[in-house]
Design a protein that fits this description.
Layout (H helix, E strand, L loop, with lengths): L1 H8 L5 E2 L1 H12 L5 H9 L6 E3 L2 E5 H10 L3 H8 L14 H4 L15 H8 L17 E4 L6 H8 L3 E6 L2 H11 L4 H19 L4 H19 L4 H7 L5 H23 L12 H4 L3 H15 L4 H17 L19 E3 L4 E3 L6 H19 L7 E5 L7 H8 L1 H10 L1 E6 L14 H7 L18 H18 L3 E11 L6 H7 L2 E10 L12 E9 L1
Parallel strand pairs: 4-5, 4-9, 5-8, 9-10
Antiparallel strand pairs: 1-3, 2-3, 6-7, 10-12, 11-12
Helix pairs in contact: 2-3, 2-4, 7-8, 10-15, 10-17, 11-13, 15-16, 16-17, 16-20, 18-19, 21-22
């Protein structure tokens, strides 16, 4: 790394602009670093700003210290073992590439990144993947389809694909992603909905209230939480963050209450049942969600209606009455401004869906257009059902006759899937708002390894049995020399027993670091891709 370090030898306090800093960092780390990445480090107080007449500058020595301290590979291998395949970390991909086109159409816990799927489905070989397992025209099966990552990547690579999921909502997400849509027609419907929403809001006071509240918050935060000085003082221990933040939140509360009274805003809903929508949404937000839902129901085109439902669901998720830090965990409803550790200032709950609805509508259109440029003329579909018992061919005959004929003629080449983990996620509960809003039937009792069953001995035994039953059912439709790839964090060492019970054996294991977890815990974490074949 001597060549890169020479940039610092001349002047250990060399100040550069963001573009030069990004070029240096890209060379030093041997992966793309953008000016936006450097800006993020400044914004969140990881680096000091150095204002100059020509713009903000960065100290390269400070930037080097930051990246040196952030180096993960050596640290993670010390914790997780030197058999960790760092190539499968896909660290070189930016966040926008890991969530490219339709992969970010809707949030979903527990999904793998598309590059991992592509690695095993495409036709390349390397020192780790020494043979090609799938070719264009083959059929791949994902019996735990989730949000459809395998189906989308199969389409990109010219493979046919079948997904199965117990969740009707997951099936809708997957099928919306892979279907060809009437995008001009979708745009027309979005514009109509925007107009009708604006008309609905014109009789309400909450938009004017929220605008006034934002003015007061901006003034308050500028005074008491200046950026980046405040965050740097927190890092240096000069400010006790939570004590200071909560005190300032209390000081702002009278301003908030005065505005509530002035604009006559109703915070809580009149009907206080125990439904998710009743508990986790402020009254103005709930009214707008129900208004949009009823408008979407009247859309005649069934496929456009499904896309709009996905946009509304994504919007509803972002508009829950909770703190920014607790969006994924939902600790308690939040109906007043609070100190936000994520942003280092006083934040507020949402009083309207407008900004998120418009943002996600435009984002969805753009992502569908982007995928249209890449899609191949192949078949993909996700079926609703229990992978332990579903007759795949009969299900396809009802939903996709052409794919049913193809399966009958050539059978399925293999499986690429990420089964649920033991006692980690309640897969239905993560989208409780969508089930309640759209009226989907919940089938929690058919989940394999759900959170509510825990991770004890009985839960593990049930998990082994469940995954093995899925494999036994699915392999009836596989080609003779099939290949099965299952992505799992096998901390309980269950997959050898699963393979044996399914009449298979583990050919190879690929152990990969998982660097981009959405949970707060960013400690060293790995998962294994198990390659299974017939015993």
């Amino acid at each position: 790394m001597a060549k890169q370090l020479s940039l610092l030898d001349e002047d250990q306090t060399r100040l550069v602009d963001l573009k030069e800093a990004s070029r240096w960092a890209s060379q030093y780390l041997q992966r793309p670093i953008t000016p936006a990445n450097i800006s993020y480090l400044l914004q969140y107080g990881h680096l000091h700003k150095h204002p100059t007449p020509t713009g903000v500058r960065v100290d390269l020595e400070e930037l080097k210290r930051y990246y040196d301290s952030s180096s993960k590979e050596k640290q993670w291998k010390q914790v997780l073992g030197h058999d960790l395949n760092w190539r499968l970390s896909f660290i070189e991909y930016k966040e926008s590439e890991r969530t490219k086109h339709v992969h970010r159409l809707h949030p979903y816990k527990g999904k793998f990144i598309p590059q991992l799927v592509e690695y095993f489905l495409d036709e390349h070989t390397d020192e780790f993947k020494q043979q090609v397992f799938f070719h264009p025209g083959d059929i791949v099966l994902d019996p735990f389809c989730g949000s459809g990552t395998t189906l989308v990547q199969a389409n990109e690579l010219g493979l046919h694909a079948i997904g199965i999921d117990i969740s009707a909502f997951n099936v809708m997400i997957s099928n919306v992603k892979i279907r060809k849509h009437d995008l001009p027609g979708l745009l027309v419907e979005i514009k109509k909905l925007n107009q009708r929403l604006a008309q609905f809001q014109s009789t309400k006071m909450h938009l004017a209230f929220e605008a006034h509240l934002l003015e007061e918050l901006n003034r308050f935060n500028s005074e008491f939480f200046p950026s980046p000085a405040y965050k740097q003082k927190v890092r240096q221990g000069q400010i006790k963050e939570m004590e200071y933040g909560e005190q300032k939140a209390r000081e702002f509360l009278p301003i908030y209450q005065e505005l509530i009274h002035k604009y006559r805003i109703q915070l809580t809903q009149e009907k206080q049942t125990q439904g998710f929508l009743d508990i986790w949404y402020l009254a103005p937000v709930r009214e707008e969600i129900e208004f949009l839902f009823n408008e979407i129901r009247q859309v005649e085109d069934a496929e456009i209606k499904k896309v709009l439902a996905i946009i509304l669901s994504r919007t509803a998720r972002s508009c829950r009455a909770t703190t920014h830090a607790d969006l994924a965990t939902l600790k308690e409803p939040m109906i007043q401004p609070y100190y936000c550790r994520k942003h280092g200032k006083i934040c507020k709950p949402l009083f309207s869906v407008t900004s998120w609805w418009k943002r996600y509508s435009l984002d969805t259109l753009n992502r569908l257009r982007e995928f249209d440029k890449l899609r191949t003329n192949t078949y993909q579909i996700c079926l609703t059902g229990d992978s332990r018992t579903l007759d795949i061919v009969e299900g396809l005959k009802k939903k996709h006759p052409h794919l049913a004929e193809l399966v009958a003629r050539q059978k399925i080449r293999g499986i690429f899937s990420s089964p649920p983990y033991v006692g980690l996620i309640n897969y239905h509960e993560q989208h409780a708002y969508a089930y309640e809003l759209f009226g989907f039937e919940r089938r929690d009792e058919l989940e394999i390894g759900p959170l509510y069953r825990g991770q004890g001995k009985d839960a593990r035994a049930s998990y082994i049995q469940g995954i093995a039953e899925v494999l036994r059912n699915c392999k009836r439709y596989l080609q003779q020399d099939y290949d099965v790839f299952l992505v799992a964090n096998d901390k309980f060492q269950l997959y050898a027993d699963i393979a044996a019970l399914a009449g298979m054996y583990i050919v190879q294991q690929f152990k990969r670091p998982v660097l981009n977890r959405v949970e707060k815990n960013r400690s060293a974490y790995a998962e294994t891709i198990f390659h299974l074949k017939e015993k």
